[in-house]
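Note to self: the last two entries modelled the partners one at a time, which told us nothing about the interface. This time every component goes in together.
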Amino acid sequence: MKYQSQKVAYAYFLVAMALFGIQVLGGLLAGWIYVAPNTLSEVLPFNVVRMIHTNALIVWLLLGFFGAAYYLVPEESEREIFSVKLAYIQLAILVIGTLGAVVSYLAGIHGGREFLEQPLWVKFGILVAAVIFLVNVSLTFLAGRKTAVTNILMMGLWLLCLLWVFAFINPDNLSLDKMYWWMVVHLWVEATWELVMAAILGFLMLKLTGVDREVIEKWLYVIVATALFSGILGTGHHFYWIGTPGYWQWIGSIFSTFEVVPFFAMMSFAFVMVWKGRKNHPNKAALLWSLGSSTVAFFGAGVWGFLHTLHGVNFYTHGTQITAAHGHLAFYGAYVALNLAMFSYAMPVLRNRAPYNQVLNMASFWLMTGGMAFMTFTLTFAGTIQTHMQRIVGDYYMDVQDQLGLFYLMRFGSGVAVVLGALLFIYSMLAVRREVIKPGPVAVPGE
Amino acid sequence: MSEILTKSRARNVFYGGSIFFVLVFVALTAQSHRHITQTATAGMELTDEVRHGKHVWERHSCINCHTLHGEGAYFAPELGNVMTRWGAAEDPELAYEILDGWMKAQPSGIEGRRQMPFFEITDEEMRALAEFLRWADQTDTQGWPPNDAG
Ligand code: HEM
Ligand code: HEM
Ligand SMILES: [Fe+2]
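The predicted structure of the combined assembly is written out below.
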């Protein structure tokens, strides 16, 4: 740790990992309700479980981003964070807001827009925390050295916080409500968060591969340019069937197809940098997560996104298990794995020791990634059958679902693997042990 | 690539291009806003009752089991066209009666079948909810869903 104030990232990462645990346990319960639908049906209905699952996901990913910013902005700007105290106040507000939201969901108090169900006071709390964060990081950034990594990171964070304003805009007209809702949801994951992802990935590549900064930064600008050029008008892929004009079918199809490009570029970027870099960095787990993240993001967002993004296909698949399959692999690859890469890299530094528990950490990568991939396949099969029977043949929804039990059982099984992987990851971060296996001798260059 | 595309060029293309796409997007959004209010949802008046119905829909977080115009959760049937499925799209009284009967019969308690919770909803709220679903049903959704199954 070069700067003392980077230590605040530690607290952010701990809270993020705790919520990650809650998120996957919530997902597992939701998956179990698909298998045995009478489970808890009167005390804890599916909609409440689902809210906890999705909200916990979003909050912990954001906490991870905030923590990552507090970790890397000092290092890039070459100075301490403007105020460590503000950073802890921000975290406290977010923790209170999160606990408040969970308690009120359990008590049946919530909003009714998907992902934005937080009670109004929690939404305001998030807004206040976002403002504190922006002030704190921006003052650090402005006073110090500016790099492409921090430029892009700051731009992504500012824009994503500004878009939060749409969480407060809920028109009475349902179609307008839906259109503005996507300004948070789509323009987060397919525009502003991509900037954050590129910046964090760039930082990790700088540290892990030792490739020249000039090369990395040029790549970054190209990546984020393709992200915004495609992602902004790509919002149109959600405007096909909600009351918006027909021209979105073409704009949405064409531009969202190009959304594959930044994800392909990020994957190529990561592999090319590792190939070029001559540094033999000891943190192999962070490297595995970085490469894994960009690869799975390419498949989850790029390939599975393209699968249903053309309007002729989406007409039939819209709102089926195909969407759930894509949502899972995209979120996992792009944002979950990226955060875990950052944790894997930063935790040893924050704890002032050499990388530890790398074998356990890498095992958790394969367990989680294998689980998520299998979950995606089962949901894709379920969604394909659903699309055919319900959308083409015209069978009633519930009758079709009755045919899909086997897939939901397999989804639950893959969920168990994911939960075990997540717990193993958290354990490997927290419990410092000696390595399970001794590393082999380092190859001497030129040998 | 290295000489033509310098870092500062790449940065400028990024900033300039992004501003361009934001402007196009804002213009199209404004046009879509008008299209929604004046064309797509103009088939039925957005009354206070419909507004009230939307609040009832939101308060009970129906969206976290059902889809509405294909968005939401995938645990329970599509409701954007439920009034068409029930043959009640044009008939407020029938819409209310079927919905009221349905909601009061939940949860079914049938073993092995997905359960919809029981919600405390007054008669007035139930009428509003029925109107909201009728209102949603008449939206011009470019022909989606492909059939009445939703
Ligand atoms: C990491 C980036 C991405 C994430 C996290 C993500 C996540 C999601 C999620 C959660 C949904 C469901 C939203 C809902 O509840 O209705 C969704 C829908 C969708 N996504 Fe993505 N996505 C990403 C990238 C992409 C890309 C690159 C494409 C296209 C190439 C794409 C195409 C779509 C489409 C077409 C839908 C609508 C599905 C439907 O009609 O039901 N996504 N995405
Ligand atoms: C233990 C593993 C998991 C299981 C069993 C699970 C299960 C579920 C279930 C049953 C739903 C509701 C689908 C519906 O509406 O019918 C859901 C939604 C969702 N889950 Fe998971 N999940 C798991 C892990 C994850 C992870 C790791 C992520 C993030 C990468 C994630 C992100 C999401 C998202 C974004 C949605 C909303 C999808 C949409 O609206 O399209 N889940 N999950
Ligand atoms: Fe999208």
